[in-house]
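Appendix B. Chain record.
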Amino acid sequence: MDGEANLRTVAVEAMDRLSVPGAAIGIRSPDGNEITCLGVAALDTGFIVRPDTLFQVGSVSKPFTASLLVAMAGAGDVDLDAPVTEYVPGLRLGSQAVANRITTRHLLTHQAGFWGDWFDDFGLGDDAMERFVAEYGRLPQMFEPGTMWAYNNCGYILAGLVAARVSGTTFDAALKNTILQPLGLEHTHLSAAEAIAYPVAVGHTNAADDGSARIARQFLRPRARNPAGGVLSSIEDILTFASLHLGKRQDVLSKQAVQSMHEPQVETYEANTHWGLGFKLERRNGGVVVGHGGATNGFRADLSMVPDREFAVAVLTNSDSGSQFATEIVDWVLEQRLGITPIEHPRVTLASSDAALFEGVYAHPYASIEIRQNGDELCGRITTFSPYSEVSEPQTGKWFGLEHVGDDRFLISAGEHKGAQTKFWRNDDGSVRYLQAGGRLYVPGSWDNLEGYSS
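C-alpha cells predicted for this chain:
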C-alpha cells in the first residue's frame, strides 16, 4: 500500500535521526490491521523486529489494569466508588485521615493524592504486591483525594491489589483470567520468565554525549509494579487489545463499560485534556484521541485510539528516545488517515512579575527542574537521578524554552519533550505551590521539606 510505504519512509527517517534501534507500528481501522516492523530487537544480535516480538510497554499496562477493574465492577464484584479500605482493610497511608476517602475510581483516574513514584523491589513472589502496599505509610499526601490530578503509579499498584483481593488470587492471574486469555493475547505476559520463550526486544538507552543507542542491560521486572507498568506485549496483541476499546469484544467488556472508560472523569493540568478510567482523553482538531503512553528502562510505547472512527495506532520501541519517535508517528498517522491534528495553543504575554515568581528549582525525589528567566520568557532544564535506571550519575538535559499559553501553563518549545505542557499551581497568596510536568508534582526548593514526607 502507498500509505504503508509512506509510513515506512517517515518512520525510518525518524528512527535514524533519534537513534531508535527497533520499532513496531500497528494501525487498526475498519479495513483491518496494518503492521510495519522496522530495525532490530537488539543491537548486539541484529535480530529483526517481527509482528510477534515482545516489547515492554510500560504504562500502557494501566489501561489493562483499568479494564480488569471495570470488568470486575460490571460483574458486581467491585464498587469503584466504595472506599478502597473495604477491599484492603488495614491500609496505611502517609495521611491516615484520607484512607477511608480514597476510592478505586480515584486510583484509576490519578486523583488519590499521595505521592506515586516509589518503586522499591519486593521480589517475584506472590506476596510482592502485598509487601509493597504495606509500605505506603511512607508516601506523603500531596492533596486531598478528588481535588486535583497527578500521575500516580503507586495508585495503580494499589488498584491491582484490590483486584487480587477481590478475585482471591494474584493480580497476574486475575488479569490473565479476565482480560488476556478471553482476548486470546498469547503474546502478552507479565514476567521475563514467560517472555523469554518468545521473540523479545532488548531496551536501549541513549549516550549523553552523542545520543547513540546502547544496550540497556537491566531488564527490570519487579513483580509489584505489574499493574502500573509490567506488561510485555507484541504489536499484534496491542492491536487486539485496542479492538476491545473500539467496542469489538463485548464478550469481554460491554459497550457501556467501554464507553464509561472513555468518559471524562477529571481535568488534568494540560489544556484540552481530561482523564477517563485508565486513559488520557485529548481533544484535538477533528476528534478526541483516547490513549496512553509508556516508558521503562530502554523502552517507550504508545497506544492512541479514536473510538468514534473505529481507529487505533500503536507504536512500540526499544529506545529511550522512543517517546519523541512515537509522538511523531502517531501525529503523522492521525493527520494522514483521519485529518486529526493537535490544537495550536495561542501564546500569551507573560508578566515580568510572574516570570520572576516562577524562577527557581523545583524538586521531585528522582528529578529537579530549574526555571530561569530568559528575556520576556522562561526556560528550563531537567536533572534526573533515578535509582531505577542503570545510569548512576545525575543526568542534566539541555535548556529548553517555555512558551506561555495562559493560566500559568507553558509549552516546551524544543527537544525530546517538545509540545509537552507544564503548569504552575499557586497557593491562595499567589506563591507557587507546585510545578507540574510529566504529570508529576514538583515542589519549590527541597522535596525533604514537604510536610509529611519520610524517606
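Further analysis of this model is presented in Appendix C.
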